[in-house]
Amino acid sequence: MPINYYSYSHESTRLIMRPLVLGDVKPWEDFMKSNDATAFFPPKLKPPHFTAKDWIERQMQRYENDQLGLLALTEKKSGHFIGMSGLLKQEVNGKPEIEVGYHLLPTYWKNGYAREAALYFLKFGFITMLPSSIISLIHIENASSQRVAQANGLTTDGKIIQNHGPSYIYRISNTDWTKN
Ligand SMILES: CC(C)(COP(=O)(O)OP(=O)(O)OC[C@H]1O[C@@H](n2cnc3c(N)ncnc32)[C@H](O)[C@@H]1OP(=O)(O)O)[C@@H](O)C(=O)NCCC(=O)NCCS
């Protein structure tokens, strides 16, 4: 039987990943109200146009429509909700792609949690979905997100204009992933 992304018991060294629930809306508000955290989001995905609840319901729709979506990250040592990461269906230049995404509550930045979660989902994605590559779309000025991608071996493969501005396509091929 194929592994089901939604119901699988995802975990890495310091994190547990599980589907989002409406109880995550309250802690996620700390992210949505931080100007630093949403600096590279388009206005239509920020308050007051888009609330923490809208964001979480959007992922729930992705679980249903795509069998993928951002999952909640919880810290093993405290049990706290610390952000989101996971695999997403994307279309870039007319082609289907699998993206790894990550967003942390600002309190948890600079602990290596984003790279740990992204590395976990790269591994899960390559093993279970066998894509030829996995990408991350990152605003050209989002330096900390680019460092996460680079730390996991992704490199730039062109630029696109997204609705929040110019973004790099960071990519790692299955071949390069398997080599490392
Ligand atoms: C992007 C984002 C997740 C990156 O968070 P981050 O804390 O910088 O990334 P990590 O959790 O991987 O932590 C890595 C940093 O912690 C440091 N660190 C500390 N302890 C560490 C450890 N045990 N292991 C690894 N790194 C550690 C690293 O040196 C690194 O610092 P550096 O970037 O200055 O080199 C965060 O800035 C964020 O949520 N931004 C808003 C949303 C967003 O932009 N998402 C991405 C959209 S493309």
Helix and strand topology:
Layout: E1 10-11, E2 15-18, H1 25-32, H2 52-66, E3 69-75, E4 81-92, E5 95-104, H3 113-129, E6 133-139, H4 143-151, E7 155-162, E8 165-173, H5 174-179
Antiparallel strand pairs: 1-2, 2-3, 3-4, 4-5, 6-8, 7-8
Bound molecules: coenzyme A.
What do you see in this structure?
The protein is of the alpha+beta class and 180 residues long. It has one domain (10-135): Aminopeptidase, CATH 3.40.630. It has 5 helices and 8 strands. A 5-stranded antiparallel sheet has the order 1-2-3-4-5, with helices on both faces. Strand 3 (69-75) and strand 4 (81-92) form a beta hairpin. 29% of the residues are buried. The structure holds coenzyme A.
SSE run: EEHHEEEHEHEEH
Dominant shape: globular
Reported by name, the CATH topology is Aminopeptidase
Number of helices: 5
CATH class: Alpha Beta
Distance between the termini: 28 Å
Average pLDDT, rounded to a whole number, is 96
Q: Which ligands does the model contain, each kind named once?
A: coenzyme A
How many domain units? 1
Q: Please, what is the CATH homologous superfamily?
A: Gcn5-related N-acetyltransferase (GNAT)
Low-confidence parts, pLDDT < 50 over ≥5 residues? none
Please estimate the helix content: 25-40%
Strand order of the largest sheet: 1-2-3-4-5
Structural classification: alpha+beta
Strand content: 25-35%
What is the name of the CATH architecture?
A: 3-Layer(aba) Sandwich
**In this structure, how is the largest beta sheet organized?**
5 strands, antiparallel
